[in-house]
Amino acid sequence: MNIIYPIVLSGGGGTRLWPKSRPDRPKPFQNLIGEQTFFQSTLARLDEAGFASPRVVSGEAHTGLISQQSNHGQLAELIVEPAAKNTAPAIALAAARLDPDAVMLVCPSDHHISDEPAFRNAVQAAARLAEAGWLVTLGIDPTGPETGFGYIERGDDLGSGGFKVRRFVEKPDEKTAGSFVKRGTFSWNSGIFIFTAGQFLRELERHRPEMAQSIRESVAGGQTEGGKFHPASVPFEAIKGESIDYAVMENAEKVAVIPVSMGWSDIGNWQALRDAQTKDNDGNAALGRAELVDCKDVFVMSDGARVSVVGLEDVIIVVDGGEVLVIAAKDAQKVGQLKGAKDL
Q1: 160-179, pLDDT tens digit by residue?
Q2: Which residue, 320, 323, 316, 318, is CA-closest to 339?
Q3: Do residues 264 and 108 touch, judged by C-beta distance below 8 A?
Q4: Mind listing the pLDDT tens digit for each residue in 21-51?
Q5: Domains and CATH numbers, the chain
Q6: Nearest-CA neighbor of 18 among 222, 324, 331, 288?
Q7: What burial class does residue 243 get, using C-beta atoms within 10 Å of its C-beta: 0-12 exposed, 13-18 middle, 19+ buried?
């Protein structure tokens, strides 16, 4: 087994976790579960035998936070995007900086994974498929009819825990999601990918040749300074931004999925963050000063003010930086519609 090269993607405004997540301190760089931030937990998860030092792809705005939250020499390289162009160009930048035969592990910097041995076992299985020319994604065993995730349907068994992808499905409605869970052949799309750098770039060239050409020009004209690689801005800024799912994964022929149960959450909203906390016998959890009486499934986070809650159920209360958010947990996906979040 060749060594695996982790690529950590760090970007996004994080409006779904407003008011805690803001442009100057987004979700990856906050310790919302445990003592480490999501970014630090991601690096720690990759600090194991068989993994090379991680490369991080990020915008300029977050390079200071990345430097603060990573140990000296911990990163192989920080690739600074000239502009935010979604995941396909970001991954292509990293791929172009590696040997074509290098097995890449692409992972977001803000996911929570509680079963790290299961994660590493799945990555090793995926790496074996990647070395055989497959583009692989980790599929999460669904625990319910979640409508906030994309789904992956499994096809032929490839051995070693992998399956050929039959199709990708966009975020379904609740009835459709329920039917997927009952059928037992669908996984949630985790956004974690494994493939060789060369295979990914060949597929990008095949399906998005203009993007591939701009990446080549941007990398060729880039400069390295103090552990940071700055791609040339003009060709990169000309790229039409697109996700890896649309640009490559949904178009390529040899695409595989490794189903895995690893205590995964993308912590994509306040309900997901609540569900990842250690809770009391009534399902309540509090971070900060709080008193809860006759409550059930209530989550409180406060940066200072004492929060007292009586007789509520399935509610989330957040106090941060002079802003107060109170929502029903079932409506957590709607936080991004608030004017306060939109004004970030």
Answers
A1: 899 999 999 999 999 999 99
A2: 323
A3: no
A4: 888 888 999 888 988 999 999 999 999 999 9
A5: 4-265 (3.90.550.10), 270-342 (no CATH)
A6: 324
A7: middle
